Amino acid sequence: MLRRLEILNRRLSETDAEDARILLYVAPDEAERKYLTDELGIDPHTLTSASDPDELGRVEFEPNHAAIIFKRPKQYCADDNFFFKISSVGIFLFRERLVFVVAEDNLRFEGKHFQQINSLEELLLKVVFRCIWHFEEHLKVFNMIAEELEHKVNLSMENKHLLHMFTLEKSLVYYLNAISSNGRVIEKLKALATRFRFTTEDVEFLDDLTIENAQCHEMANTYSQVLASLVGARVSVVSNNLNVLMKRLMIVTIGLMLPTAVFSLFGMNLKLPINESHGAVGFWIVIVLAILSGMSVFVMVRWKKF
């Protein structure tokens, strides 16, 4: 799918013009890929990397354009089962054109930073900022989900919630790797600011992006360490909850075993002294002995504070 955009009155607007300077390709089909490689001269491997979630971020220069692979969070859906994935965005900067290639339609040009755009280079940097901001928003969601799962693990002895925490921890590892990769891309953009024709304001914005990405990485690293500690602690909590339950079941089993032993003793098909000396009253004597034997177990438990 192809979307054409243009900068009008310092804002992005949809357009149908064939000569639009900004092109957004979402999961390009074979004909669109052929146009990008044959007409625009984009390297086929780099174009494939733009849709590959496992590709690391990088900056490359071709004869007529610069190619940037940047990482961003993938849109989460319920089928992912608490696994937050990473996607890539390919940015190809020509002298008079800017091309974006993504695997899914999740690249948004929204927010206050997109209300005033002066050049294609500035738009490129603001898309980079949007990706970093998207990571930060996902990390906040991570924290809320982790707190909810922590509460559920404390009250449950099932492995389901604990496995969800393991999945979150795995996702954070991928996030840390992607954010680190983005940091290297930003550093290279700063080092090659002249080749990208960045203005003084653009370079200052790059400094802000460096700080923003570093804070994002620190946040992700903190959440990763905290979640790893929580997972280890919650494994012990689940194990302790199971031990407490087994102890209670054992007490109940012993409390029922003694009355069963009393009934078994006096239920033998033999002549017992109690049958001859007490008659029908013997039945109630057996009942009382069974109740007292069961109660003795629970009294002992309360006394020992098991």
UniProtKB/TrEMBL annotation:
Q: What is its main location?
A: membrane
Q: Which InterPro entries does this chain map to?
A: CorA-like, CorA_cytoplasmic_dom, CorA_TM1_TM2, MgTranspt_CorA/ZnTranspt_ZntB
Indicate whether Transmembrane helix appears among the record's keywords: yes
Keyword match Transmembrane: yes
Q: Which keywords fit this entry according to its UniProt record?
A: Membrane, Transmembrane, Transmembrane helix
Show the Gene3D superfamilies listed in the entry.
Answer: CorA soluble domain-like, Magnesium transport protein CorA, transmembrane region
- Where does this protein reside within or beyond the cell? Membrane
Topology in membrane? Multi-pass membrane protein
Q: Which Pfam families match?
A: CorA (PF01544)
Family per UniProt? Belongs to the CorA metal ion transporter (MIT) (TC 1.A.35) family.
Identification of the protein by name: Magnesium transporter CorA family protein
Q: Please spell out the taxonomic lineage of the organism that makes this protein.
A: Bacteria, Pseudomonadati, Verrucomicrobiota, Verrucomicrobiia, Verrucomicrobiales
